[in-house]
TrEMBL record, chain A:
<keyword id="KW-1133">Transmembrane helix</keyword>
<keyword id="KW-0808">Transferase</keyword>
<feature type="domain" description="STT3/PglB/AglB core">
    <location>
        <begin position="553"/>
        <end position="602"/>
    </location>
</feature>
<keyword id="KW-0472">Membrane</keyword>
<feature type="compositionally biased region" description="Basic residues">
    <location>
        <begin position="740"/>
        <end position="758"/>
    </location>
</feature>
<keyword id="KW-0256">Endoplasmic reticulum</keyword>
<dbReference type="GO" id="GO:0046872">
    <property type="term" value="F:metal ion binding"/>
</dbReference>
<feature type="transmembrane region" description="Helical">
    <location>
        <begin position="366"/>
        <end position="386"/>
    </location>
</feature>
<dbReference type="Pfam" id="PF02516">
    <property type="entry name" value="STT3"/>
</dbReference>
UniProtKB/TrEMBL annotation, chain B:
<keyword id="KW-0812">Transmembrane</keyword>
<feature type="transmembrane region" description="Helical">
    <location>
        <begin position="466"/>
        <end position="489"/>
    </location>
</feature>
<feature type="signal peptide">
    <location>
        <begin position="1"/>
        <end position="19"/>
    </location>
</feature>
<keyword id="KW-1133">Transmembrane helix</keyword>
<keyword id="KW-0472">Membrane</keyword>
<protein>
    <recommendedName>
        <fullName>Dolichyl-diphosphooligosaccharide--protein glycosyltransferase subunit 1</fullName>
    </recommendedName>
</protein>
<keyword id="KW-0732">Signal</keyword>
<dbReference type="GO" id="GO:0008250">
    <property type="term" value="C:oligosaccharyltransferase complex"/>
</dbReference>
<dbReference type="Pfam" id="PF04597">
    <property type="entry name" value="Ribophorin_I"/>
</dbReference>
Amino acid sequence: MADSGSITESFFKGSSGRNTRGLLRLTILSLIAAAAISSRLFSVIRFESIIHEFDPWFNFRATKYLVQHGFYDFWDWFDDRTWHPLGRVTGGTLYPGLMVTSGAIYHALRALTIPVDIRNICVLLAPGFSGLTAYATYLFTNEMSTSPSAGLLAAAFMGIAPGYISRSVAGSYDNEAIAIFLLVFTFFLWIKALKLGSAFWGALCALFYGYMVSAWGGYVFITNLIPLHVFVLVCMGRFSPRVYVSYCTWYALGTLASMQIPFVGFLPIRSSEHMSALGVFGLLQLVGFVEFVRAGVPSKQFATLLRGFVLVVFAIAFGGLVLLTVSGVIAPWTGRFYSLWDTGYAKIHIPIIASVSEHQPTAWPAFFFDLNMLIWLFPAGVYLCFQKLADEQVFVVVYAILASYFSGVMVRLMLTLTPIVCVSAALALSSLLDTYLTIKSPTEPTDSSADAVNGTTASSKKAEKAAKQDGLRSLSKPLVGIYTTFSKTSVVSALTAYLLIFVLHCTWVTSNAYSSPSVVLASRMPDGSQHIIDDYREAYQWLRQNTPENAKIMSWWDYGYQIGGMADRPTLVDNNTWNNTHIATVGKAMSSREEVSYPIMRQHEVDYVLVVFGGLLGYSGDDINKFLWMVRIAEGIWPDEVKERDFFTDRGEYRVDEGATETMKNSLMYKMSYYNYGALFPPGQAQDRVRGVRMPEKGPELNTVEEAFTSENWIIRIYKVKDLDNVGRDHASASSFAKGNKKKKTTKRRGPKVLRVE
Amino acid sequence: MRLLATVAAVLSLGSTALCAEKSNSTKPLTSRQILPANFKPPQTFKNVNLVHIINLEKSYPKESINVVIENTASTAQDEYFIPFTSSQMETIGGFEVKDRKDPDSGLFEVEAVEFDTESDTQFYRIRLPTPLAPKAQQTLGISFSYLSALEPLPKHVGQQESQYLVYTFSAYCPSTYVTLKQKTEVKFPSTNVPEYTIVPATAGESESPQKAGSKFTYGSFGELPAGAVEPVKVRYEFTKPVIHVSRLERDIEVSHWGGNIAFEDRFTLHNHAANLSKQFNRVEWASQQYYNPPSTAIKELKFPLRVGSTEPYFTDVIGNVSTSRFRSNKREANLEIKPRYPIFGGWNYPFRVGWNADLKKFLRKLKTGNGYVLNVPFLEGPKQPEGVSYEHIELRVILPEGAENVQYSTTVPLVSVEHSLHRTFMDTTGRTTLTLTAINIVDDFRDRELIVTYDYPLLAGFRKPLVIFTAVVGVFCAAWAIGGLDIGIHGKKK
């Protein structure tokens, strides 16, 4: 016993103890990274190594282009296979960080002659980076707390928190996959730079900030958070050369770095979102100057004067900024930015932003769903930061406040909240655990009381104060039952239980909510085996193989990236949504009558129209359910031709059955969705399983387009746009002739004959 | 001691010589014999009796000619010529000649000869293994098939309609020699043959064809001069897909360390059946599936693999295709794949399938030396009742890194052979690769073997572990050396 005791002693004490702890820490971090990676692999194991959802398909396509054509071609890439006939300056309108990262990994592996498919790199990039994120969180938290367990806890939380997993499962090849790592790591470097006042760390911070800018539009968050932090520090009277050096290094280098990205370009000096960074930079110069002068001239009046001078300059600068914004030199805030302050703004002014589900305001349960117990540990952690409010704790507080607000505005921004929640929760939890696990019963309880009695009142007051600052009031009265084994075990076991439940919750959420590729749907056969519904790829593969290479596909913009990526065919609109009018044109073609849509489609050289229809399978994410957004977006441009009201019945219902409005029934989208659908059922029995209604007995008729392909479960329906009639008839009369209907001579039999007297 | 070494050296020399001899049995058809422009095959033979059988049961015409030849010259002859038109020459495949009387004697050496690119008549030259003495007779069995020789008529049919194919041939078998007696038999897939050419009766011969079920017979015809033709056109029902693989890339990768052999076949598949007259109608298709009517669409492809094949996959350019089944037990290993959509006439579907197997079943180590013998199927494409034709097959056998002295032997007619290196998975020099190319092959060649022999020294097997070990040690050393450097700009604090 004593022997083993001495052995552990030798392991945990002194320099070898440091080594042991370092080794343990390394092992734990590797395990955390492994857990983070493996919990993101549900979809690969259940389905296959496949790119998920919508945007990742574009990133994947761009990566393939980069790998095939090289970096310079990628930089100058003009893509004429999207936004037909406009095209897209893809190289200049994307954040290349993600693709360049995958491309670099690809080439590095190729150089080692390891034949890895670029698809697998793209699929596994996000899990791989999540391991790095966990490590970055560890580093970041270590800067906040003296207890190393806080860092490890934060890393573990970050590794498995669903709020982050939602955007980083295998296959979710989106900018966020690497951006969250860069975000946390940049913040770590910032704190490091600020603490040391080091230009070296500041430059590193700027470097990673530049990487972040190249990777994700969310870099604006950093651009505003760091200045805000500095601003708060200055307001708290904590200006110091450390702040000055680190901020100025970061701002100067970081801005230069960010301007190297074509998509960002001159935005850092021209757009309102970046002005706070510039303003704080100016402010720091002034404050620095004032401090410098004050150090030389120790006159109180002079300092006050200078303070006034600073305020005046600041006011003038702000006024100039407003003036420049109004006059248009500096771009005003974009709509997306306004919608951060007014959640109703987008729905009225920019329906295209509001139509994306991830831009909706967050529902309360989402916080518990994505963060579980962390969300209630979060305020505790923030509170603990006030205990020792050094510069870096101020950062946590500022970050927490800002991110809490934004995550409440937009579901998507939950992602930026997650790191700070993990950090704060880890701070709170580690302080609890440290308190209860390592606290030792005072051996000489009389000692402290004797001390209190014997010592001066000042010292006892100091001790009391220190105890108060420790936060847990019980500590100030050390003899309360807190030292008993019972209190220790009960608290620790409760926390352990919470942690275990948290792990269960995370695994459950990841497995059930975030691991579906959405390109492939899974269902269960009656015998319990998995049945895969692969209609999307069936139809895309059909398009890819059996249509001319330049056949233009019209579909709603959601499917643009997928068509580009999987079917490799030119599309009219895609998820880039840079041209609202073009999207509205497609919306108009979909929501108008055939006679109106046909000229639009001819003008845009559309060969095929693709619609998603879930009525047979009960797949609710189909085009009929998205239809109102098409109508709204089209109405934004052509208020006279497309009216949302016309698609609702008199009683204000959105119906697709017998009671649907005439506008609805005549719209191209409705017709294409339900064309020939009744033929699957006995007469009069056609059912729409999404809307849960019985369809009219007589289905819609199509004249200007013909059904070209329908996938096995009818999820994708592809129509071919007919050519102009050979003998110059319009399509309606041509198809009526083909059916053998007699040409109606309505003019002859209208009412009794009346003698015309003129 | 020295004596032993010498003996061993002589033995190994002998064995390599043996190997070299073996490899000569397969000669690629790359070098076409160029003959003078005014070439005419010498009239040294006559066909005593000839039976020409045209088999149209599959999606490609398969012809065989059984002919008794007699040497009419005064000296022994060993070159027999068969004429083809130049368009036939482009699509002819699997040309093989055997002795009918002695089927075990192996295949005869054949060669496409070219004398004038402008001429419409080209020849295949058959070299008899032993020259035929004057007045002596020999029975040849010649078989070959044409690719893309069948035309659907009408070219567009409805989704559920029957398909009719047209085939044109000559009732008189093309020959450069006088033929004393011959007949042509045509085997159809069914009795439904709505249109066919009637050869009128002539003196001594009745009207052709005579029908017996699904078999039509033209002839027999009496003595005909060299080059006689009688065009015949038949149009018959064939409501099955016409599966055509324009390119098949097949990789066979041997891993000695893993004890594994990996196969991967990449197909560029087309259906050359009649195109749809209207667009595809899902309702009609779905409602007909219960009755499983004959159709020109490819619904399923069946790959009977070697027993013991494991881990099959079926993917296309956008990922895994979930609609496949693999049934594997002790007696069979059947991979049944269903394309994402039914492939109608004119539609394409490129895909890849692959699987692994235990290397022991395919590889044998020679008793002496470092030699290995690999025996793999040349082609393992789908086995369909309607047949599959392959326009271009590129087979790569990727041997382990450091394998040398590669020899091969196969009965499949090849057009080119290439030795190269393939670098993958941390190779330093690259793996020895044998690339065989064959054109115009039909699925009758499915079970043909490919035998590859090579030497694999023990040291070559340890190359990779050694290289990786050295590299990792190097990295550690470099890291240690760099870590020890002081690159700080501050002064020494000691």
